[in-house]
Amino acid sequence: MLRELRTAAGILVLFTVLCGGIYPLLVTTLGRLIAPSIDADLIARDESDPRRFWPRPSATAKPHDALSSSGSNLGPSNPALATAVQERVAKWRAADAGHDNARPLPIDLVTTSGSGLDPHISLDGARYQAPRVARVRALSVAQVDAAIDAVTEGRLLGLFGEPRVNVARLNRQLERLAP
Asked: What is the model's pLDDT at position 119?
């Protein structure tokens, strides 16, 4: 009995060191060597500068805070969701006040993602914002559309999901185009 207990304790210590220490350290080190700056594009940043593209709204208490990642958990019948969406629609309409944006407002610009941190918007979401960004940056819409096209990510494996645009990458692309 004592020998079995000693063996079990030894295995517990071994796997605790392997799985709780060595493996996470190895994966973290490899990740930083392989892709040292990828984490900058994995979490959306709160944006309100009209010169930049804006990400999806955040469901976190402090916008786009990775430490409090969560969805809103508001269902379609919840009046709080309808109120939040109406407020977001008003924000987008105010950003285009005095300028006729004939495009329909894409749903991903007024609803939060599952984590509240999603750095991607739909291609429609990016195209909707293109006239505002072009106007404020004194660029043509065609130039902004070309920047969108340059950073658009396709379907996963060519099959799954929809084309999407990483907002952080798009904003960096625009800074190179028109600082």
From this structure: 83
